[in-house]
Amino acid sequence: FPSQTITGNFANVIHGLNANHLTDRVIQRSKRMILDTLGVGLLGTSTEICHKVMQYSKIYSSDASSTTWGHLDFRLPPLYAAFVNGVAVHSMDFDDTWHPATHPSGAVLPAVIALSEAFSQKKRISGLDLLLAFNVGIEVQGRLLRFSSEARNIPKRY
């Protein structure tokens, strides 16, 4: 459809993703990316910058709360738990990367986990749901990265 915008097409593709799109290879790679990100994030919880963002985030409270990695007794609203955990992942700069430089898992996994913890017991998500959410986040980031170079050539359509 020539009249469809890049953004509209992007939204349609992302909205259409489901667990059937997760091949065995994608699931295995995703699990490896998640395990690597958790390991790097746990190591990053000991950094000075992570301690600073934890101290900053203590001023926020909410009925919904999520875990800060490495500090199971310290919970924050999902937004701030994702922020602290994302900083922990990236603080040592060992997290995965794409070219041109972006760090896909460090931005996606902390948000997915924080949100999944905020669901009520009745609405718990499955491991497959978590893998799908993770992969949708990675797909969004990859497509936005790709669009960023295209956007310079066609700013009116973006």
TrEMBL record:
User: What residues does the MmgE/PrpD N-terminal domain cover?
Assistant: 9-152
Q: Which GO terms describe its cellular component?
A: mitochondrion
What domain of life is recorded for the organism? Eukaryota
Known Pfam families for this protein? MmgE_PrpD_N
A GO MF term: aconitate decarboxylase activity
Q: Name one GO biological process term.
A: defense response
Q: Which PANTHER family match?
A: 2-METHYLCITRATE DEHYDRATASE-RELATED (PTHR16943), CIS-ACONITATE DECARBOXYLASE (PTHR16943:SF11)
Family recorded in the similarity comment = Belongs to the PrpD family.
Protein name listed in UniProt: IRG1 decarboxylase
User: Which organism is this entry from?
Assistant: Crypturellus undulatus
Gene behind this protein: Acod1_1
